[in-house]
Amino acid sequence: MFLTWFDSNSWLLEIGEKRILIDPWLVDSLIFSNLDWLFKGWRSQNRPIPENIDLILLSQGLEDHSHPPTLKQLDHNIKVVASPNAAKVVHQLGYTQVTTLAHGETFTLDNQIEIKAFPGSPIGPTLVENSYLIKELESGLTLYYEPHGYHSPQVKQAAPIDVVVTPFIDMTLPLLGSIIKGQNSALDVAKSLQPQVILPTAAGGDVIFEGLLMKLIQTKGSAAEFRSLLEKNNLSTRVIEPTPGDRFQLPLEKRALAI
Q1: The pTM is what?
Q2: Which of the residue ranges 8-17, 28-37, 58-67, 232-241 would you say has the lowest mean pLDDT?
Q3: So which residues are the signal peptide here (predicted)?
Q4: Among 81, 93, 115, 139, which is most buried by a count of CB atoms within 10 Å?
Q5: Cα 158 versus chain centre, distance
Q6: Cα angle: 79, vertex 83, 86; to 5 degrees
């Protein structure tokens, strides 16, 4: 299993013989609803568009997960698996092979990779987006992805999971509360899912964030603090901090089968 982090929530997962692009934001700025005065993320240069993508996986319909300028540049014939809200975005852009996954539903890619949707982040009072459990069927390797730290108790049924990708940093807004749940949520999921490896997402990487919203958001936590929490709780889960753009192989061991 190989991963490349492009910063923010954007990942390339190579599992088995498949290349899965997750929540890609690779080009142009990140702006919500064209309100750049409220929030804007930008890089000094675009990320290269990866080649030979087998699947695009979208967890949410908001721009930081379903980024329209990036999705416009990708081949619209690539298969897409998406939350119902994200599926609306790619349908409007003209993608031809879109599978919408509601919570509890499963998609199988070429009889090699199984993707199951679980409840993820709440967006507003009525909408709950997706988290995903990705499994290579031949080896049994598993990866769980939830980019805002909202972990459904239903995921526990899949434990142990080899790799977890979730935030380590808490982000809150006055009056509104948590936007992203970091350390305590990540610690709980490490206890319940017993991953070999855990990686942070939703951090900026090489991105510069601007706007009124960034002046109001309060952040706390770090990978170093999270490592300390794991040690205090006698958890052997390994923390890996990726460098944006670098492809790396995950150090995974074959787990013993339960008797």
Answers
A1: 0.95
A2: 28-37
A3: none
A4: 81
A5: 18
A6: 75
Question: What integer pLDDT is reported at residue 258 of this predicted model?
Answer: 42
pLDDT of residue 214: 80
Quote the CA–CA distance of 182 and 218 in Å, as a whole number.
12
Beta strands in 174-233 (DSSP E): 177-180, 197-199, 208-210, 218-220
Mean pLDDT, residues 75-103 taken together: 98
Please give the distance of CA 22 from its chain centroid, rounded to a whole number: 7
Rounded distance, CA 61 to CA 162, Å?
Answer: 27
Helix (H, G, I), strand (E, B) or coil at 225: helix
At residue 232, the 3 state secondary structure works out as helix
Which of these, 198, 216, 107, lies nearest to 149 by C-alpha position?
A: 198
User: What Rg value do the Cα atoms of the chain yield, rounded?
Assistant: 17
How far apart are the C-alpha atoms of 114 and 155, rounded to whole Å?
A: 15
Number of Cβ atoms within 10 Å of the Cβ of 242: 20
Grouping H, G, I as helix, E, B as strand and the rest as coil, residue 163 is strand
Which sign, positive or negative, has the C-alpha torsion 202, 207, 7, 238? negative
- Angle of CA points 49, 252, 121, to nearest 5°: 60
